[in-house]
Write a structure and sequence with these properties.
heterodimer; A: 427 residues; alpha/beta; Rossmann fold; eight-stranded mixed β-sheet; 15 helices; B: 358 residues; mainly alpha
């Protein structure tokens, strides 16, 4: 029976092979499980942007882009299977949208020579390109997020938050633990009290954490949540009548799908973002003409304009721009993963470029270099308007506190380099 | 016709008590060994190793381990995930603390540490039975996961709480870490599976295994005929945890390379291994393999057929996969409540009479 299975599987795998010379962009997505509410819009946006590029521009530099989707369910074992099954097909870049899978893939992509882009998630110290040759996390990372949230709180309090109480409600995993180190440093620097409240996977059970918040009455609650945990946390906050404007989620806890189930009670909830929310960009006209009206939209096609759809699109846009840069550097349209990496390292996102792509003022301007794989660490704060049903950007781009973060990044990447005997690059 | 006892004369006690008394079974066993050792290592690639063979072999070890405890000794355990976590964290601490020692010894050491932890959590089994014991082992599951999340010493104070396996070699060939080749990973897992399955098979045929089964079938009667329940139950916990610890160590070091405890060793893992044992067949080594194969290979196979072969959307395929696997579990258990191993046993009974059934 096993040999029959073997043969059938082999046949199935071979039948799935792509036509040669496509630029392959695997999408390790999750449209099922407790994180699907956030996984679906991202995957839709990611794929739709590539469809747009293929339909409107005839591919990237004349070569069609091909998206191979693989369902991970936010599960690391399936993530490994997805990685192994797609890497043989010429995958140019991986964006797993999961910190757990990222940790798994960092050594693997480094050995296989395939770039990994973890936009605003993954291993923060991958910002240090001297150690992490194949890993990128521009335009911002978790520690930037933690620092931006604290800076926003500082702004609201006239620059003095000593003695204030801030609680961190976090997903009890590598993802949620990432900001703790930074927040501890910032708490020492600014003199606020930090309370840590872990929530276990998948996050539906948060009664005790919110009971504690109700008892201790922190001035601010910062959340590192994902998937179903977000909706539950916002609902619980509404139940204990926690003032929503003092409740700030990271950029992974600020999509429409997180606040809508709570209804009017979610009004005023804040979240960070690394790009602008909303569908008010010229690119949506192109998307409508070439993708939606042509019946080519990914998934159910009902996620356009949501925050995470925009982020998926942004991730795809950055990948396409890096591929274009790679084509320019190497003078060939048919790029390899190694060329793609060079393109990513030479990526320069300017205001003109974004406007030209139909995304004026969509994200921060930044450029990637050999030393800096993480961008400049800029983010906005957005607030949910429940009556209008939309997110509004309420601040300009806030800069993270590099004086605290740079030392932490150097320390963590140094430890990784020592563990794995990695010599510094870029010298 | 071919599958029969007749004509295969045993002339010594050793021959008479061998594992496979029927000649055809022996050939089949050698054929499987030949394919596993002589053919697969030469054709295996990264995908086949990481998606199919390595997880199958590792889950087989875990399933054999749980089968010893639940199938042979009758002690229901829901703590498998927690014990696998002990194995994983033990091997991680050993690997990082003694980098000069060979990884094989670390894996064995992780098994021994897990055996100790298993005995500790097995102590309540002397007083409580059945569902109550299941709840006690469930407590072990949650306690161990909580412990590895809570105490930073276990993950060497890393910022994310993740543990990742550094590269370790055997005779110059990398077995863990990203440079490990598919063949090396496969062979090291196969080696452990071979030795452990052989050990389990012989343990369960001997005095120890018989005392386990006596306890399983009726503990009071077993005690009256002179089986020491303390010893039988605790050895079952120790041996079972040893196996599960090795499975956890390989799962972390060889298969995944980096894990976080809540996600990789949560309660779902305990249930997965328990389902493998139930579907495969309680009290059968073959059943452990069959159950592991069923639950590891079927989802991968279905995914490749539905998404790769038929080009269906991935979410539809993922949902259908759950329904099909669930449906097949129900079907198999209705058709044969004693699992795949019993189907295999019946097939062998029929083969003995074929082609002249009475």
């Amino acid at each position: 029976m096993k040999s029959k299975l073997t043969m059938l599987t082999a046949a199935a795998v071979m039948a799935a092979g792509p036509a040669l010379a496509d630029l392959v962009f695997p999408s390790l997505s999750y449209r099922t499980g407790p994180y699907a509410a956030n996984g679906i819009p991202f995957a839709d946006g990611y794929e739709d942007y590539f469809t747009l590029v293929n339909q409107r521009d005839g591919g990237i530099g004349g070569v069609m882009a091909k998206v191979i989707e693989c369902e991970t369910g936010y599960n690391t074992e399936k993530g490994v299977e997805c990685y192994e099954s797609t890497k043989g097909e010429g995958a140019l870049i991986y964006q797993p949208l999961s910190t757990g899978i990222t940790y798994q893939l960092i050594p693997k992509v480094t050995a296989d020579g395939i770039p990994l882009h973890t936009m605003g998630y993954g291993r923060t110290s991958a910002k240090n390109g001297k150690t992490f040759e194949w890993v990128f996390n521009y335009p911002a990372n978790y520690w930037d997020g933690a620092s931006i949230a604290v800076n926003h709180i500082l702004d609201e309090n006239g620059g003095d938050i000593s003695g204030k109480k801030i609680a961190l409600v976090y997903h009890n995993s590598a993802y949620g633990k990432e900001p703790i180190r930074t927040l501890e440093e910032l708490s020492a620097k600014h003199g606020f009290d930090l309370t840590l409240l872990p929530v276990d996977h998948p996050g539906q059970e948060q009664k005790s954490q919110w009971l504690q918040i109700r008892r201790e009455r922190p001035d601010y609650v910062v959340m590192w949540g994902w998937g179903v945990m977000n909706q539950v946390a916002i609902q619980e906050a509404a139940n204990i009548r926690f003032p929503m404007e003092n409740f700030i989620g990271v950029w992974w806890s600020g999509s429409e799908n997180d606040v809508k189930p709570v209804g009017a009670a979610a009004n005023g909830y804040k979240a960070l973002n690394m790009h602008m929310p909303g569908a008010d960009f010229p690119i949506y006209d192109d998307l409508k003409t070439y993708v939606y009206d042509a019946g080519l939209s990914s998934g159910a096609g009902d996620q356009a304009g949501t925050v995470l759809y925009n982020r998926g699109m942004y991730a795809a846009m950055l990948a396409v721009e890096a591929a274009k840069a790679a084509q320019e550097i190497h003078g060939t349209a048919d790029i390899t993963p190694a060329m793609m990496r060079d393109g990513m390292e030479a990526l320069n996102i300017t205001e003109e470029k974004m406007a030209e792509l139909g995304l004026p003022n969509f994200g921060p301007t930044f450029s990637v270099s050999c030393e800096n794989h993480g961008g400049d660490g800029l983010g906005i704060v957005q607030q949910w308007d429940a009556a209008a049903g939309k997110w509004n950007a309420i601040t300009d781009y806030i800069q993270s506190d590099a004086s605290v973060l740079d030392a932490l990044i150097a320390e963590d990447s140094g430890a990784y380099a020592a563990e794995n005997n990695i010599a510094e690059r870029c010298n | 016709m071919f599958y029969r006892e007749a004509g295969d004369f045993k002339t010594s006690y050793v021959n008479d008590s061998q594992t496979f008394p029927i000649q055809f079974d022996r050939w089949r066993y050698y054929a499987v060994l030949f394919v596993a050792l002589g053919i697969v290592p030469f054709v295996i690639n990264d995908y086949w190793a990481s998606a199919v063979f390595v997880p199958f072999l590792i889950y087989s070890i875990a399933a054999i381990g749980l089968n010893i405890l639940t199938g042979y000794c009758g002690q229901v355990s829901l703590g498998t995930g927690g014990f696998m976590a002990v194995g994983a964290y033990a091997v991680y601490k050993l690997m990082t603390a003694f980098p000069e020692v060979n990884i094989i010894f670390h894996v064995l050491g992780a098994g021994i540490i897990t055996a100790g932890v298993g005995v500790l959590f097995g102590l309540p089994s002397l007083r409580i039975k059945g569902f109550y014991l299941a709840v006690a082992t469930l407590a072990a599951q949650f306690f161990l996961v909580w412990l590895f999340n809570k105490v930073p010493w276990f993950y060497n104070y890393s910022a994310s709480g993740q543990i990742s396996a550094p590269e370790r070699t055997l005779a110059g060939i990398a077995l863990t870490g990203p440079e490990a080749s598919a063949t090396a990973k496969y062979l090291v897992c196969l080696g452990f599976v071979f030795v452990l399955a052989w050990l389990a098979r012989n343990l369960t045929r001997g005095t120890v295994g018989r005392s386990w089964m006596a306890i399983r079938d009726m503990d009071i009667a077993a005690e009256i005929i002179g089986v020491n329940p303390l010893r039988a139950k605790l050895t079952a916990f120790a041996v079972s945890s040893f196996f599960i610890g090795i499975a956890g160590a390989l799962f972390f070091a060889v298969y995944l390379g980096a894990v976080e405890v809540g996600e990789a060793f949560g309660i779902n893992k305990s249930f997965l291994v328990l389902f493998m044992v139930i579907i495969g067949g309680l009290g059968s080594i073959f059943g452990s393999f069959a159950g592991a194969a069923f639950l590891v290979l079927l989802p991968v196979f279905l995914k490749n057929v539905l998404v790769g072969g038929l080009g269906w959307p991935t979410d539809l395929a993922a949902h259908l996969e759950l329904m099909i696997v669930g449906g097949l579990i129900v079907f198999f258990l209705i058709a044969e409540p004693h699992g795949l191993a019993q189907l295999w046993r019946l097939a062998k009974e029929k083969l003995r009479l074929w082609p002249f059934p009475h």
